[in-house]
Design a protein that fits this description.
The protein is α/β, with parallel strands linked by helices. The protein has 2 domains: 1-239, Cobalamin-binding domain (Rossmann fold, 3-Layer(aba) Sandwich); 240-494, Transcription Regulator spoIIAA (2-Layer Sandwich), CATH 3.30.750. Helices cover 36% and strands 17% of the residues. The chain has a 7-stranded mixed sheet, with helices on both faces. A 3-stranded antiparallel sheet has the order 2-5-4, with helices on one face. Strands 11-14-15 form a 3-stranded parallel sheet, with no helix packed on it. α6 links the parallel β6 (121-125) and β7. α1 packs across α9 and α17 runs parallel beside α19 (479-494). It binds cobalamin (B12) and iron/sulfur cluster. Iron/sulfur cluster (SF4) binds at residues 262, 264-266, 269, 271-272, 306, 333, 360.
């Protein structure tokens, strides 16, 4: 039976001091929406963050809106960042530790949309732990106004920590879909009206008498059987200006993944837990996706694949981009280890515009990555010289779990490496990412096991789960000291590069 399903990308709650506003196409909702359309359902998408992108307010955690507008706050913050020393900045902005910025449609506008469509089921995306509170607030609002409508939540955060969502949403969430959503959510929609039947499905979780019940996930599916995107779903949602990627000079663009999963299992990353080992789409399916996107006027793709360099995928993609005239950039990150002269030549020839090469630690014992060998660095410079915008990043504060006392020294050493990369022309920009512990990653599991013996973080400090905000620190180092150190690194890096609003919270032009 045909059902009405409204898929909502929730407003964004961000740390006002540390976070740039990063918004992009919700590929998960787009994919599950496409799958439902194919099964004959009536589906609408509401990207409330993007549609309300100019509606930014500051709130404190008790829900009170601050008198100061976001624009004024940001301008003052950037001016202080440039003139105060790190300690003065830390002291002055400490008073904002209970404040968040909310970007997106207000509840009145969301209410109007839901009322006019009258869905049977509302699906909310919960991809980021840092946006936990936004999902909870939205679910509560919707359940209160539309008690008969099922509220279902899915995404990476919902997958990692369903209990956190279900316990804090006070019965406003009917079901969580954890893991890949296309098939499970479609089965759930088909069970509409019969909750007992939903509770038999693999990959769903729910609250019952105050207890979270979780049915195990089904096995990973064959990507070609499910992944497809109907461009009509995203029309009119406002994704024309890049908010996280290198600006596209007016070309219509979208984020895209042609593969999921990763051959590595880095200790801080949730992707391999979410998606397992690398699975790639077949060439004929990529071709038909590109043709569809072309028909809808897309000209540039921002690749978010986690494992782009493995196998022959890159060459195949570059060939297809050429066939269909797509420009492209990479935002998912490529490993320096996997680059060589041949690959760099193909990348340059393909008119790639921007590439992200993070310098990551690999396992729990890794401390500061050393500067890569000169041969590899030259590859980066070759791309810069060819006009590709090269971005790197370092994760600051990697805990050598056995040596919490290394923390501050390691941050300084890492910062020196990135400043050298910038000064010597190996990259155009470097992003400062303080370590955060994402739910259910290897790091998280170690800290849960140790009971935060040497390192501390607030498990429910939702905003701090963003990669840009300081989250975890050694017990022996106070939060103030940690924040001060990080501000100082931002200031040093900012002196060597133009900090752009799409990657820095301290850019003048946000
Ligand atoms: C693309 C991407 C982004 C894009 C935006 C993505 C977006 N708007 O959805 C950008 C670059 C902006 C971004 C930013 C950030 N990201 Co990011 N990002 C990704 C990435 C690489 C791919 C996600 C994706 O599109 N996959 C393709 C789609 C088809 O799959 P999917 O999203 O998983 O959706 C499926 C299921 O989750 C589920 N599902 C999703 N939504 C829903 C909704 C319902 C109702 C249902 C039933 C099911 C469902 O079904 C879908 C189909 O199977 C993932 C890594 C990964 N491989 O998962 C990290 C990832 C999601 N990001 C992560 C993080 C931490 C961030 C940042 C906080 C930090 C940063 N890197 O800047 C910011 C926060 C941004 C924000 N706006 O708040 C983490 C999240 C972990 C966590 N628990 O928080 C991940 C998992 C990477 C990691 N480090 O482990 N990100
Ligand atoms: S950080 Fe990158 S390389 Fe490591 S597991 Fe995650 S996606 Fe793979």
């Amino acid at each position: 039976m045909q059902r009405k399903v409204l898929l909502i990308n929730p407003p964004l709650y961000r740390h006002p001091i540390w976070d740039p506003i990063r918004l992009s196409q919700p590929l998960g909702l787009w994919s599950i929406g496409t799958h439902l359309l194919k099964h004959g359902h009536n589906v609408r998408l509401l990207c409330s963050e993007m549609q309300g992108v100019n509606n930014i307010q500051l709130y404190d955690t008790s829900g009170r809106q601050l008198d100061k507008g976001f624009k004024q706050f940001h301008a003052e913050k950037v001016a202080d960042f440039k003139t105060l020393d790190a300690k003065q900045f830390q002291v002055k902005y400490d008073e904002y530790s209970n404040v968040f910025s909310r970007i997106g449609l207000d509840f009145g506008a969301i209410f109007d949309e839901v009322s006019s469509f009258g869905p049977d089921i509302i699906g909310i995306s919960s991809c980021f732990t840092c946006n936990h509170q936004s999902v909870v607030d939205l679910a509560r609002f919707l359940k209160n106004k539309f008690p008969e409508t099922w509220v279902v939540v899915g995404g990476q955060h919902a997958t990692a920590w369903p209990d956190a969502l279900l316990s804090t949403a006070s019965n406003s969430i009917d079901f969580i879909v954890h893991g890949e959503g296309e098939k499970v959510f479609s089965d759930l929609v088909n069970c509409y009206g019969d909750k007992a039947k939903v509770k038999l499905l693999a990959g769903v979780a729910w609250h019952e008498s105050g207890i979270t019940k979780i049915n195990p996930r089904p096995p990973f599916f064959n990507l070609d059987d499910f992944f497809d995107l109907d461009p009509s779903l995203l029309e009119g949602q406002g994704y024309t200006n890049a908010r996280h990627a290198y600006p596209t000079e007016g070309r219509k663009f979208t984020d895209m993944l042609f593969s999921v999963g990763c051959h590595r299992a880095c200790c801080f990353c949730f992707s391999p837990i979410m998606r397992g080992k690398l699975r790639s789409l077949r060439e004929d399916n990529i071709r038909s996706l590109l043709i569809k996107l072309k028909e809808y006027g897309y000209e540039e793709l921002v690749l978010q694949d986690d494992d782009l360099l493995v196998g022959d995928n890159l060459n195949m993609l570059l060939r297809l981009f050429k066939d269909y005239g797509f420009r492209w950039q990479n935002n998912g990150g490529v490993e320096l280890e996997g680059l060589d002269d041949d690959k760099i030549d193909s990348i340059i020839e393909s008119r790639c515009r921007c590439i992200y090469v993070p310098f990551n630690p690999r396992n729990i014992k890794d401390r500061v990555p050393t500067l890569p060998e000169q041969k590899k660095l030259n590859l980066l410079r070759k791309m810069c010289d060819a006009g590709i915008y090269v971005i790197s990043s370092g994760i600051y504060g990697i805990p050598d779990i056995s040596h919490p006392d290394h923390f501050v020294d390691d941050m300084s050493r890492l910062s020196d490496i990135h400043i050298r990369l910038l000064k010597e022309g190996y990259c155009n920009a470097s992003l400062v990412l303080p370590l955060s512990i994402l739910p259910m990653t290897q790091w998280w599991n170690v800290l849960e096991r140790d009971g935060q013996k040497d390192f501390v973080y607030d498990r429910q400090g939702w905003l701090d789960y963003s990669i840009f905000a300081p989250q975890i620190r050694p017990r022996s180092i106070g939060k103030d000291k940690f924040v001060e150190q990080l501000i100082s690194i931002h200031q040093k890096i900012d002196a060597e590069q133009v900090s752009e609003s799409w990657f820095s919270a301290f850019a003048s032009n946000a």
